[in-house]
Amino acid sequence: MPSRRNYVVRPQSPPRCCCLHSISKVTGRDIYPPQLQDRLAASEICRPQAAESQTLPAVNDPVGRWVAHPYHQAWRFRGLYSFLLVAMLLGTGIAYLIIRHRNLYKGAVDHNYARAVYAAELMGFIAVVSYALHIIVKPWPFDPTVPDAAPSQPYNIRVLIPCYTEDTAMVLDTARAALQAWTPPGCTKTVYLCNDNKDDQARHVRKQGMAEMGGQYMARPKGRAGDGNPKSANLNWCLNQIYSPHILAGRRIPANEVISILDADHKVASEFFKALTPLFDRGDDVAMVLTPQFFRNVKHGHDIFNHVNSAFWYLMQPTFAVLGLISCTGTNFMIRAEAWQEVDGFPEHTVTEDFAMGIELTLRRWCCIFVPSALAIGEAPETTRKVFQQRSRWAKGHWQIFWSPLYNPLLRFLPWPARWHYGLLPNLRMLLIGFWYCGGIVSYSAAAIGAPFVTIIPVVNLWAGIFPLVITKPIAILGTLYLLAANGVIFYSPAELGGNLWFRIRMLWLANTSNLILNFTYLKAALLALWRAILCKNLEFKATGEVVMPGKRSRARHFCSFQWWSIREDLWFSMVGYAFSLVTIVLSIGAIIGTKANHQPFDTTLGICLGWAVYAAIAPCLVLTYVFWHSIGFHKVASWILREHPQWKGAI
């Protein structure tokens, strides 16, 4: 569990502490438990500090934190249409699932098969409901700071660029862009290249390049033991060197120290620091300022792996920021150094340190400001293998935290008896935040469990004559309405996503299609994380790999570096599913023609399975065509749906 740290009061500011300490001051009683008093008394950090600061005991409690000048962003409902759409989803979905449960075994040949299909439907309903909140909640228009306005205090900006085996020229270009970016008036900026590469030649070239540009070069010592997360370990080591006087003396890092994290392939725009730094003045509890990710080598109309993820950036992230949930994404953000110190650095217990960092900050009542403008541009993975490797690491990190009893968000945000005196609403809010932090788990589960059934149900029905449910009139009506409402929520496309309506719907469809492509990757990640948790071992951190520089490739964003082992590890499930779907489509059409020729009544289940088989064949068709036939065949197969739009909101 994270250690209990002491809060040091900043000069001319009320103490940042928890409600327990405030209550003890008012009542004159020390209400800390004896065990906590002993730990606080024996703590090395509780030694007397300098006269200008004061140490206060604090408890890592997510409910009772008191802040002098909190940040608050107002929100409102998007409109009647979205509200009615979500209401229709809840009403028809709950009614459909209840009727399905009552008739679960009616006409079912195999009860286990019927239960498995029902579990997949239930998981899909939970995933859509968890996403539905983002289409009804809308923050008020973001009020950006005046570009020429100076922050209220002189911030010291520490820009850290962690790098490993990336191309050295690309790494130095990223550092050069950070050095040349505008610095806010009255502030200072220092760029650090945090090199974790063990190659002596690469270290020498990078060190020499940073010296010529006027930046700082830092490199972790060689021969270190294995890290649970090398990126976090690298950043924490460098920050411990930078802030060693404060850390060794047990003092809190000054409030005007901020940190910016940039991946080695993400170049910032010239106004990045000038636009984000003044936002820390909006509240004492603002820990992070976050911007979306944008990729120069991704064609938005061809984004079958959902690299752009526009729904996440322009629908989900603003809602998270308004409701007090921090969803860190690993790069293109700025964070207070005191917040980094309070959570004991970037988490090293998981391969997704950004997701875990957001949980730790939210537990301590820090908040985040999301700026919906692309102020940095980077590179997406270039090959299919790297794409699957990246998504597998993301899924493993979520499952790794979920399977851990020490870091599970639901367990950490539960309203334990010690928090009951705070009231019902604060505890319900934290419980809801804990559920939202498990939203990724719900989405991964729905894709891993539900997507295979889209292929399995038509095959089993056509070849074995087994359908998982009996279609009655109530099930048909409610199922149709529920399907319409769910798709209405999934494809809800407000103007924030950019482009015209057709462009936005196409992007959301591609995002949904990517789950059908990556479902086996999500399933493997869940099982591997569970197995490693049972063995009490950490997952191996696998970097996405070296990104090819733009000048070293002849075409932008093509998955041409194909290898046979990529089929065996990543694409074999898509190939098998595609083959079964094609055979099922042909046999279903033949069966329907034969039924009509024999003047027999139309089989409803046969028509449903034909539609599902066609839908299940689309995703593997796209990815396999993109890999084998390259861009020419891809355009021939799907040019009607994947046209490039000339404009994209947020391009720089």
From TrEMBL:
Position of the signal peptide: none
Residue intervals of the Glycosyltransferase 2-like domain: 259-452
The keyword Cell membrane is annotated on this UniProt entry: no
Pfam families: Glyco_trans_2_3
Compartments, record wording: Membrane
Membrane topology type: Multi-pass membrane protein
Species assigned in the record: Apatococcus fuscideae
Membrane spanning stretches: 80-99, 119-137, 435-463, 475-495, 516-534, 571-593, 605-629
GO MF annotation: an example: glycosyltransferase activity
Major location category of this protein: membrane
Example of a GO cellular component annotation carried by this entry: membrane
Taxonomic path: Eukaryota, Viridiplantae, Chlorophyta, core chlorophytes, Trebouxiophyceae
Keyword Metal-binding recorded: no
Superkingdom, natural source: Eukaryota
Keywords: Glycosyltransferase, Membrane, Transferase, Transmembrane, Transmembrane helix
Name under which the protein is recorded: Glycosyltransferase 2-like domain-containing protein
